[in-house]
Amino acid sequence: MLVVELAFTPTPERLATRPAHRETLARLHADGELAAAGPWADDDGALLVFAVNRGRLEELLDADPYYRRTPGVEVRSVRAWTPVVGVLQPF
């Protein structure tokens, strides 16, 4: 699994692009390529957990303009993650 950490600034472009981005996330989750995603509570960034290899992740990041071409969104890190136990459902 790969974890992507994003940093946000409150630009109008980011907020305008967010609905389409979230639709993409829902599709990736339904397809089994995204395990979990969501913003930090203070909305200064987000964490996404992908169940794909690095090559596929790069394809996904390139296909969604939110990650690399939307002002106010910065990919801070991409790290491999080895979970020990399952992911909880949101409450």
Shape descriptor reads globular
Quick one: CATH superfamily? Dimeric alpha+beta barrel
Cα-atom radius of gyration: 13 Å
CATH structural class: Alpha Beta
Main β sheet profile = 4 strands, antiparallel
Proportion of residues in helical segments:
25-40%
CATH architecture descriptor text: 2-Layer Sandwich
- Please tell me the total number of domains: 1
Number of helices: 3
Instruction: Quickly give the structural class.
Output: alpha+beta
**Average pLDDT rating:** 92
Task: Describe the 3D structure.
The chain is α+β, with helices and mostly antiparallel strands and 91 residues long. The chain has a single domain (2-80), classed as Dimeric alpha+beta barrel (Alpha-Beta Plaits), CATH 3.30.70. Helices cover 36% and strands 30% of the residues. The chain has helices at residues 12-30, 54-63, 65-68, and strands at 2-8, 34-39, 45-50, 73-80. The protein has a four-stranded antiparallel β-sheet with strand order 2-3-1-4.
